[in-house]
Description:
This protein has a domain at 3-248 and 255-266 and 436-467: Nucleotidyltransferase, domain 5. It is 41% helix and 20% strand. Strands 1, 2, 3, 5, 13, 14 and 15 form a 7-stranded mixed β-sheet that branches. Strand 16 (255-259) and strand 17 (263-270) form a beta hairpin. It is globular and about 60 Å long. The termini are far apart. 55% of the residues are buried.
Amino acid sequence: MDYVIGCDVGSQSTKAVLLSYEGTVLGEASAAYAIDYPRPVWAEQPVERWTVALAEAIQQLLATTGVRPEQVRGLGLASQVESVVPLDATGRPLRPAILWMDRRATVQCDRVRDSLGAKAVLDLTGLNLDPSHVAPKIRWVADHQPEIYERTASFMQPGSYMAYHLTGEKAIDYSNASAALLLDIQTKNWSPAMCAQFGIDSGLLPPVRPATEPLGRILPRIAASLGLATATQVVVGSGDEHAACLGAGVIGPGLVADIVGTAEPVCAVSAFPAIDATGLIETHCHAHPELWLLENPGFVSGVNYRWFRDHFGQAEAETAARAGISPYALLDVIASQAPAGSQGLIFLPCLMGATTPTWNESARGTYFGFTLAHTRAHFARAILEGSAYAVRDLTDRMAAIGAEPRELRVMGGGARSRLWNQIKADVTGLPVAVPQTSEATALGAGLLALIGIGACATLTEACDAVVRIAERFEPRPREWAVYQETYALYREVYQALVPAFEAAARFQSSASQGVFAGYA
């Protein structure tokens, strides 16, 4: 029997799943790594963390399933989007990748805003003029590290880099390219106008190709490190949230994908490149080459709970390590002890800026409204509720522009939390469905591989054959009524703090540069 492997190269780990030609998931494996934060709202990773983790995850997957290398006929990649790394002419990285959550390139956005205007950029690219995207980061490298820019032969996003690492071939799919702020969303080609605005030579960007297209076979030395055969075919692959939509069957109207990982992208399918005039919802290309996604590419989410675990959940982490269970399961037990609405304690999930309820790189994480009556349980639950409020921002906006959400499909690591799933149903008023395979991103990457090697005819056919719903959560009227009030309070708190966000961002920027004694 032959198989394919789907890989999810994420922000904090790489996951791999083994998939039969019939779409059955036969095994899963993962390898974790860290994110570096050199300054406030900066985030970086050396690419070696991805390549080492990919090898570890695939080796573990083969060892636990007993599959022989020659039985793996295809490999599909899904990856974190909006991160970028420069390569020299030999393919060697010239610096660590600047990650999607990094907000350093505000000045580079401001220049284009003054020159072309935010509306023109939105109409052309489907994106907001925001430092989370790739083009401002490339321009930042050119402005602040010109010696690196001058030596750069290619700028790669993580998926493109990993595909190049595997095959020696350069390519980027529509979904990853559409996150660059350099793609014409109508033609799906690099935009000369946007490249000119950022002063970027389009020759430094990989060619744009469909996600399902075969890219090449694995290089011999890389195949040896992975434990795979050189005959294994690699497909171009897609962005992580785009592949997750495939893995959850979000390829038709009314379904909304909620991918809960380090970030939390929220996506709805569109048959054409619709534009949200407010910019809250961006327009990206789907992993499905014939579709688009109306999406918010993700506020920081799972990493907020991880931050809480690391700094305030040490006891749960130690207990979980001894028991061999997830520390988040224990934190959920703590959070469940607080009532819906956390007795008015509001958490704004803006620890790395905000993409909702507005796009604001100066926004900062906030706990508001706590009193001496509030406990650690309230603080833990408020983090889960804060992300649910952010999801409602987006599903409400999708409804306003005609997407008509009728079901939220939750996937990723956060989908394992039954408490969080129920909170989202109660906050949004939408039924929440959890696919059988929580690692929907890696599954979606595997589906791309099935198409790429010709084992399945269409992505629609593949999704219909594979996707199954494991559990559903219905909104509860009593909790919905509570969350109507606290959701309104969440939005009011955010708007009231906008001026304070700006002041905090200025102070943190100055402090990180050593302007204030004792804060260098």
